Request: fold
Amino acid sequence: MKLASDNFLQEASAALNAPEKVARRNLLGQFLPLARDSAASKYGDFDALRAHMKRVRRHTSEHLSHYLQQFEEAAVQHGNQVHFVADAEQLNSKVLSICQAHSARRVAKGKSMVTEETGLNELLLKAGLEVLETDLGEYIIQQAGETPSHIVGPAFHKSLAEIRQLFLDKHKLGERGLETASEVVEEARGILREQFLAADVGIIGANALVAEHGTSMLVTNEGNGDLCANLPPVLIVCTTFERLLPRAEDAMALQRLLVRSATGQPQTCYTSFYSGPRREDDPDGPLETHIILLDNKRSDILASDYREILDCIRCGACLNHCPIYIGVGGHPYGWVYPGPMGSVLTPLLTSLEQAHALPNACTSCGRCAEVCPANIPLPDLLRDLRQDESVQRIKPARWRHGLRLHAWLLRHPALYQRFTGWAMRLLGWLGKRRGAFRRMPFASGWTGQRDFPAPEGGGTFMGQYAARRRRGVRRG
Amino acid sequence: MDKPHPKRKRSRQRRDVALMVTCLADLMRPSVGFAAIRLLERAGCRVSVPEQQTCCGQPAYNSGEIDAAVPVARAVIETFEPFDYVVVPSGSCAGMLSHHYPALFEGEWRDRALALAAKTWELTRFLTEVARLPAPKRPPLESAITYHDGCAGLRELGVQQQPRQLLQEQCGAQVQELSQNKVCCGFGGTFCARMPEISGKMADDKLDDAVASGATIVAGGDLGCLLHLAGRARRRGVDLEFRHVAELLVGEPRGPGIGDGRE
Reply:
């Protein structure tokens, strides 16, 4: 997917000026945290489960080569073909060559953020294949020619009325009502069902890879992943090494965390483990299966101080709890992953220079870290990226110099107090009647949106306190 | 062992507290600093205000100018480490001292930062858990109050019930809760100036929530949030009064609220 994060502020502004969408997002921002909290508290000791998973993940990444090898061996034993690819281009061309080897014409896809990352659809379409997204949300945005706005609900930004109109325009099915959500879903289901049967290749992602069995786990609510995986003769699983876990029970622990954090359900409708191609006495299943493991800078992240972001299980809880994501929606972030996790991942997977606005789209409120099932210290990682932004001289010079001058002044208390005492007396006197300023030199960032409250008057606290002490001493 | 010196015994009863005024109270709202001193004295503390203090260095730190923040942190540690307690009328600045300073250092300075962290208290938490205020001799506050929890106090320091308890005990006020009382108001330090439009939207949500609560006073423990909300309310013409919790706890506030004039 093309990176457009350098337009963050302009796109955010546009998003904030669409009141209906803002209201819809605000509702989501109220409902989704309630659902997550209720599911987490019903579970019992959810925090203990989070801590457990953190230990498992740490162990796995510290023994990565061992578990990768174990996974590959077990997967190959089941008849899978396992491919390691370095970057987006390699993944895309590997998928294309598999499709071409089977003279495939139609591809059915389950939801896969990894293939969004590599822009796979674009390449396959260019090569003349038909590519159909089968996750309902992904299907909707594919039909609309849009990009996902959320990693779990890619079409969260679309209202029922918009989806209805989209289907009426795109599906040539004649006069019909499509008044209710269930009618809309039913129509999509009918269309997708035929496509599953006609597809030559199925492509899905994975929520976990189980090293001991060489299997991949997928959780869905729609069952489209299973249809993609089982009906077409060829299955390709596109995934990354940080999905790896040692045992099946670890994958189940992850599933318990993931689903509650994502949708507030205790369980999704479908949790499937895929082991490989159809065996002799299996009634169905693909004839050939591939597992492609994409690196795309993840090895570099693993070796860096940002490695904890690789613990992310893509639940979307940090998005749902982030007031900035809820405020502006996913599209201004300009790439595959929005919200707090996206603001860490996007600069790391693409370029900080182009995506440097994202780590700044954060008030350090800490709500994301509070709910992150993987216990990723997201505000700390975002601050570290802001440090990189400064060290690499990407941050606007006036901010960098201003902050450094301020910090220097703080270390010279006498000078600081003389300067602030004078300035605050002046501002306090000027603002005495109205109590606030509408405009203020050098403070347009503040006064663009708000008045600048005037200081109380009488100078600074330190000045007044020192004066009182002097008077007290004289009286004594 | 020697008998304790009578003077030392007295000083043990009266806790030696250093007030970290915070830069925003120092510059914008000195009455918060004076209110904090009076509250601490009422709670039986001997209050010092170290002269060398300026600011905790959070603007540079949160913006990623870590090497500029480190010497500021060192100066704060040196200024405040001689005292038994450091009390701060801000969850954000107290969180900076308690949680973030230790992460800035290694070795000896880390130990000193940890020692300072261990004796640093946010004001309302200190007044409920360490030094209790005596019961007030004044009529209850008549205005309806809502409370905005600053994020650092809430999540880094567990400050939530303490200011409500104090408002109840000292002012006879029952806080009328905001429906989204765990959501950030959009201040976020330099965030509010780097991304003003998003910050303004977040302030609007908070102001709408406050108006819907039926309160006329928005109280809070962090001047950053309050200045931002008051400034936005002034711009939009939203009729609410903004006060730091210390101003209310010390007695019926006399001067204008934050951002209000004498017109």
Observations:
- Residues 196-212 of chain B form the longest helix (17 residues).
- DSSP finds 14 helices and seven strands in chain B.
